Amino acid sequence: MGEAPLLEVDGIRKAFGGVLAVDGASFTVEAGTVTALIGPNGAGKSTAVGIIGGALAADEGRVGFRGDEITGLAPHRIARRGLIRTFQISREYPAMTVLENLMVSPMNQEGEKLATALLAHRRYRKQERELVLKALDVLADFGLYGMRDEYARNLSGGQKRLLELARSVMADPVMLILDEPMAGINPALVSHIGEHILRLREAGVSFLMVEHNLEVVERICDHVIVLAVGRTLARGTMAELRQNEAVVNAYLTGGGVDAGTAR
Ligand SMILES: Nc1ncnc2c1ncn2[C@@H]1O[C@H](COP(=O)(O)OP(=O)(O)O)[C@@H](O)[C@H]1O
Ligand SMILES: [Mg+2]
């Protein structure tokens, strides 16, 4: 390939009091891939993606995205560069409609205020109209068009998950970071969300995805990074990792993983 990786994580370290959550993890994500980040509970996956997305400050190490260092930038500034992290627990705006939720850009720290302003001021009508058209398009892509005027709080858990993904897409992301997007949802919806992720990959979006469900990883992820006790233990395809004794011992033993509690 010879091309520089889209995302480069180099020696990140983060301690919480006496707990070393991430201990010098290094890995890359290639453009055009869905890359999984797997590992036992407490391995440091959420902390690592928190650092990458700018929600947490690393004690050491650097993060590069599209060839630029983004270490320590605020989340909305990282989002403006096309790297967007969605949350383990959907953070939809419950008292706004589905359509309004899509008009809250993750690139704006005060998104809710911006949306309110957009909805309130006539001079924003042209931008508003364009934003609405784009939002309706995205809702249609996610099968949520019929729910556009429903309050977000009235959506099912699965629809909220789709809404979260749809909101991220509004920002035209280059790369999405998903922390356990399949946690706590039924198998039909798991496969449905998987299809959306693959559709977005075909449209040019790259993914880093923390995922416990190894069947999902096998089906939709091109590469897998294994984190254990805060360090990168291995990377490869699932097939390659099954041949890796250290990985099997640390993580794949018993043929399954405790579905675990999302953290
Ligand atoms: N905000 C925090 N304060 C204290 N300890 C934390 C915090 N976040 C994570 N940890 C600890 O850091 C370690 C890694 O956690 P985490 O990154 O959530 O792992 P994972 O997502 O792989 O399950 C765990 O021991 C966890 O208890
Ligand atoms: Mg976690």
Task: Give a brief outline of the structure.
The chain is α/β, with parallel strands linked by helices and 263 residues long. The strands form two sheets. A six-stranded mixed beta sheet has the order 6-7-8-3-9-10, sandwiched between helices. Strands 2-1-4-5 form a four-stranded antiparallel beta sheet, with helices on one face.
Describe this entry's structure for a reader:
The chain is α/β, with parallel strands linked by helices. The protein has two domains: 7-91 and 172-255, P-loop containing nucleotide triphosphate hydrolases (Rossmann fold); 93-154, no CATH class. 37% of the residues lie in helices and 22% in strands. It contains ten helices and ten strands. It has helices at residues 45-53, 75-80, 98-102, 111-120, 125-141, 157-169, 187-202, 214-220, 238-242, 245-252; strands spanning 7-16, 19-29, 34-38, 60-65, 68-69, 83-85, 175-179, 206-210, 223-228, 231-236. Strands 6-7-8-3-9-10 form a six-stranded mixed sheet, sandwiched between helices. The chain has a four-stranded antiparallel sheet with strand order 2-1-4-5, covered by helices on one side. The longest helix is centred in the middle third of the chain and has 17 residues, at 125-141. The two termini are 35 Å apart. Residues 255-263 have low confidence and may be disordered.
